[in-house]
Amino acid sequence: MGNTSCVVIGLAGGSGSGKTSVASALARDFKDKGAIVIEQDWYYRNIPEDSRIKASDWNFDHPDSVEFSLLIDQLKTLRKGEPVEAPQYDYKTHSRMKETRRIYPQPVIILEGILILDNPELRSLLDIKIYVDTDADVRFIRRLQRDIHERGRSVENVITQYYKTVRPMHETFVEQSKKYADIIIPQGAENYVAIDVLKTKIKWLLREAHGR
Ligand SMILES: Nc1ncnc2c1ncn2[C@@H]1O[C@H](COP(=O)(O)OP(=O)(O)O)[C@@H](O)[C@H]1O
Ligand SMILES: Nc1ccn([C@@H]2O[C@H](COP(=O)(O)O)[C@@H](O)[C@H]2O)c(=O)n1
To answer: What residues does ligand 1 touch, defined as CB less than 6 Å away?
Structure first.
């Protein structure tokens, strides 16, 4: 563990791999000790205000689309035991919300997002590095359903974006970050054995830090 008393878990993997589901399962299990999930997606930059730039042409899967400097600063602040005002993001308007969300430091901090293991500085702040590994066809089907039901997208829109940016960026940045993982979880939150192993390790790190 780093020089602080919290355990920071980084969860990466392709879009639709099950990161959010694994993060929620872990947060539920450590609710009594205090756990918080921070999403990389909250830190998306706004698309530049230029009428020629269309959201449907924007690359949301390149590391430059995320304000990692702010995410790293806020994670360091939380590790020091201080609260942060985390940004919030609206997928329907492709923009940051006016409101922020106050996040208080917790013994267990779970950071999830497609590029969490790609960024070297962020990696150095993680106590446990996880990659959720799910086949591309399954990820695409899940994304298609989710983006239509929850993110206000059409079938055409999801397919075009997948070919244009999601798939190539996954191959260039996400898939190659798997090599930095301490644990690779196939099947996401359904992999109860992997989740149990992970829980044991987190408990061990917490005991080491707090004697509990
Ligand atoms: N094991 C699973 N079986 C079926 N659907 C799943 C499973 N895991 C996740 N999903 C669904 O797939 C979608 C994407 O999962 P999510 O956990 O949000 O992935 P990610 O955060 O990696 O994009 C969600 O709608 C979720 O309910
Ligand atoms: N305005 C936006 C912002 C992001 N995306 C897509 O979200 C994906 C990451 O979120 P997951 O929950 O799937 O990990 C990423 O692949 C972006 O393409 C978007 O479509 N629109």
So the answer is: 13, 15-21, 142, 146, 188-190
Confidence class for position 2, pLDDT limits 50, 70, 90? very low
- DSSP class of 127: S
Question: Which atom of ligand 2 lies nearest, measured to the CA of 39?
Answer: 12
Burial class (CB in 10 A: 0-12, 13-18, 19+), 92: exposed
The ipTM estimated for the assembled molecules is: 0.97
Domain boundaries, the chain: 7-209
CB distance 185 to 12 below 8 Å: no
CA of 198 to the centre of ligand 1 (A): 19
DSSP states along 8-73: EEEEEE-TTSSHHHHHHHHHHHTTTT-EEEEEGGGGBPPPPS-TT--GGG--TTSGGGB-HHHHHH
Which atom of ligand 2 is least distant from the CA of 170? 16
Q: What confidence tens digit (pLDDT) does each residue in 177-198 have?
A: 999 999 999 988 889 999 999 9
Residue among 142, 146, 166 to mutate when testing ligand 1 (max atoms within 8 A of CB)? 142
Residue nearest to atom 19 of ligand 2 (CA): 60
Reply yes or no on domain 7-209 having CATH 2.60.120.10. no
Tokens of 91: 């997928």
